[in-house]
Amino acid sequence: MNMKQEMVSWLRTTHWDVFGCLNFKRKPTEMDAQKILAYFWNRVDRHYFGNASHRKNLRVERMCFLHTGKSNTNYHFHFVANAPRLVNQDDFVNKLNRSWRYEVKESGWFSYIKPPRSQQAVCNYLVREFYKLGMDSFNTLGSYKNLN
């Protein structure tokens, strides 16, 4: 089994509530894109967990992947995430959409966040650019996996 297939298998061990694509108004550098993603998830974590997001490391479970597009300079992220306990999936999707569109000034028009139609298709799509970026497409800074 190659690295891409192993990543898909690992992603499929979790049932994901949300799938999204986050793009930007202007083409950021890879480093700037990472910072914007971190800011977005920090806002989301603070909304759901308050100061415990930092003090106790409580975070929304998510896996983020960097994609570069055909031009190799169109940095954008695809992600899957799970709603926190006791949060309904639709409310979570709405909160993520509102946070990206209205709280992140660099957010682009062509972003989307919605429930996945197929877990298998979503997991395959996330690793679609492994042939270009390898494991560098997996964004370790923006991702968080609950280990309990």
Fold and architecture overview:
The protein has 148 residues and is an alpha+beta fold. It has one domain. The chain has six helices and five strands. The protein has helices at residues 3-11, 30-49, 52-55, 89-103, 119-126, 130-133, and strands spanning 18-22, 62-67, 76-81, 112-114, 138-144. Strands 4-1-3-2-5 form a five-stranded antiparallel sheet, with helices on one face. The longest helix is centred in the N-terminal third of the chain and has 20 residues, at 30-49. The protein starts with a helix and ends with a strand. The model has no long low-confidence stretch (mean pLDDT 91).
Low-pLDDT segments: none
**What proportion strand?**
15-25%
Count of all domains: 1
Order of helices and strands: HEHHEEHEHHE
Shape: globular
Strands, total number? 5
Query: Tell me about the biggest sheet?
Result: 5 strands, antiparallel
Number of helices: 6
- Rg of Cα set: 15 Å
Which whole number gives the mean pLDDT?
91
Helical fraction equals 40-55%
Strand adjacency order, main sheet: 4-1-3-2-5
- Secondary-structure content class: alpha+beta
